[in-house]
Amino acid sequence: MSYSIERPVQLGLCCMNVTLKKQKPPVYAARRIIVRMIDKLGIEELKRRILQNLDDLYKMLQWNESKGIRVFRLSSEMFQHKNNKRVQDYTYDFAIPMLQKIGAYARENGHRLTFHPGQFNNLGSNRECVIQQTLLDLEYHADVLDLMGMGSDSVMVIHGGGTYGDKPGTMKRWIANYNKLPDKIKRRLVLENCEKCYSIRDCLKMSFKCGVPVVLDTHHFECYKKLHPDEAFKPPEVYIPFVLNTWSNKGIKPKFHVSEQGSGKLGHHSDYINILPTYLLEIPTKYGVHIDIMIEAKMKELSIQKLYEKYPECNCLKENEYYISRDIMNRLVDSIEQASVTTPTETTPTETTPTETTQTVCDIQNADGLTYLSTITNNSVDLILTDPPYITSTETGMGNLHKQIQSNKAQGIDYVKTEEEWESVKDKYIGKKDMNEETMKHNYMKYGSIYGSKYSVQTEYGEWDTSFSMEQLDTFIGEYYKKLRKGGTIILFFDIWKITPLKELLEKHNFKQIRFIEWIKTNPQPLNSKTNYLTNCREIALLGVKGGKPTFHSKYDRAIYEFPIQGGAKRIHPTQKPRLLFEELIKKHSNEGDVVLDTFLGSGTTAIACKNTNRIFKGCEISKEYYDKLMEIV
Predict the structure, then answer these.
(1) Terminus-to-terminus CA distance in the chain, angstroms?
(2) Angle at CA 179, nearest 5°, toward 176 and 180?
(3) Where, residue-wise, is CATH 3.40.50.150 in the chain?
(4) What pLDDT was estimated at residue 623?
(5) Residue 334 contacts by C-beta under 8 Å, 6 or more apart in sequence?
(6) For residue 567, which phi and psi values (nearest 5 degrees)?
(7) What's residue 626's pLDDT?
(8) Distances (CA, A) of 387 to 106, 333, 541
(9) Angle between helix 470-483 and 240-248 (nearest 10)
(10) DSSP code of 269?
């Protein structure tokens, strides 16, 4: 008998099996009974139907196993009227043996069971009665999963609900109510984007505030775009790393929903699904993460079987294979690693057995930072020294002048004003400014200002800064934590006015011993002491440690460094840091031979500093322009 790990991409069935329901007698787990019949026949009739639902659920899971389907959404209708005040309350005692039997079968065969509680569950409601009913319903779903003994991957998916004419206010209420949830609900609850009210960006913003995992529904994504043409969106694949991060923060396997437009109104599901989005199928190879995709099609298992014909790699059924769940595999790996520690292989060193190292001294790639991080082994990095975009690009008069000057240079334009134009304005300046007339004339004609290029300051750094966000930084910091070894250090330079949010992100991802590092610029720009008031001459970095004892080669240390800004031909990036500064930081916070990582390499300063201090460098730069420049230097 051979063994197999779970498929990188698995497809999930929602609630019902068309084939089994057509049988005589039908097999389905959503038998209903109205209140009037309960009043007539008694609560025992309700319990009898619930047990029928559970018995059929067991049969459905057996059928799923025989067809290679190992992800299943449970029907919320299994326990009818659980929170209906018009019906006598009942406990789960009569159903516990069957729930335990179902849970044991699911765990033994690696089946993931989930819920999608109804749309009336609304944590953002402005009515307290709705919030209380939502809590009761979510508690019911969580109790069922707990009684089955299902792990953390068995989640409950809900939507954001209505907006009540004030989306920002409703989102705040949703977050506040989520934070108040009891742990047994919160640890299973996840949030899905919808087609009308809450986009994937809205859901990610809410997750950023409270940590709830986010389900990306691909069809809802497209519907929302059509219903909100005034909102601009990037392609869905751009949001994938941020969605994945919301799951990895909780240690839960990511889950996506896929459907296609049917013949009805916008949002209506089709009978079958013809194509699985490529950007979802690429996730395992691109990000090193296994995922589940719920197939929301009206023909249920028939649609999945049709997809298996097109995507056989998603079919969990394979003859003569035995399935090993992730939990079992993790235990096997742990036991193997433990064995290698407790029973080392004895070797007799000889003079003819050389010690070899195959580790790359410098690995630099032209790649997106998150993609590059997915190639780095967890717990393998000693120091992360990085300088992400500060999200500070602004349009100013000085910035516009800078852009104009650069444009003129590129086009070979020497003068932007004519002599006649100078003659028309010179009376405003001559004798009124403490400047030579010829100098004023030259500057005005060349730059359009009597001050020349003195007030030319770059304040817009390009798309690499404007397209970055705090949500993206949150994702990076979560990944950084995974890559650092215990006791590893992160040093992250950032905008001085956003240091508090940065500290909160580091704390969110469990970094300890957070400290300030200050770089004092000995030649701050612009150096116009007569006209500038309190020139900004410092930049701040925060340091954090991943538990344990950090590497630190110093005693009492003020963490204040004074170095000049890099100028001249060696300055290839607008936010370039001094090489000597980075060398000092690397020597203090790592050892020779340690691995240092930077995913925002820019000018290549970190790589050069590592080379000069005998460290192993790993890093990337997303811009091809800067990558080519830094490679010439490194």
Answers:
(1) 52
(2) 90
(3) 362-393+464-633
(4) 87
(5) none
(6) -125, -175
(7) 85
(8) 46, 36, 9
(9) 50
(10) B
Pairing between β-strand 484-494 and β-strand 381-386 as defined by DSSP bridges: parallel
Architecture of the domain defined by 362-393+464-633: 3-Layer(aba) Sandwich (3.40)
DSSP letter, residue 388 = -
Question: How much is the pLDDT for 631?
Answer: 84
The pLDDT of residue 568 is 66
Q: What is the pLDDT of residue 523?
A: 78
SS3 130: helix
**Six-digit token string for 93:** 């005692």
Q: Is the dihedral of CA 394, 398, 399, 401 positive or negative?
A: positive
Give how far Cα 220 sits from Cα of 398, 467, 514, 606, Å.
Answer: 43, 24, 40, 42
What is the number of helices (H) and of strands (E) in the chain?
24, 18
Dist CA 492 CA 479 (whole Å): 14
Amino acid at 410: A
Q: Tell me which residue has tokens 């390499």.
A: 601
Partnered with residue 112 across adjacent β-strands are: 71
H or E stretch at 561: strand 560-563
Write down the pLDDT at residue 466: 57
Q: Please say whether the dihedral angle defined by the alpha carbons of residues 149, 151, 154 and 156, taken in this order, is positive or negative.
A: positive
Q: In which residue ranges of the chain is pLDDT below 70? A: 1-5, 318-361, 392-406, 416, 454-467, 525-535, 567-569
Sign of CA dihedral 298, 272, 284, 309: positive
Residue pair 189/211 in contact by the 8 Å Cβ criterion: no
- With CA atoms as reference, report the closest residue to 215 among 188, 233, 176: 188
Rounded to whole angstroms, how far apart are CA atoms 419 and 29?
88
168-204 burial string, b = 16+ CB within 10 Å, else e? eebbebbbebbeebeeebbebbbbbbbbbbbbbbbbb
CB atoms within 10 A of CB 456: 19
| 66/316 Cα distance (integer angstroms) | 9
Contact 199, 193 (CB under 8 A): yes
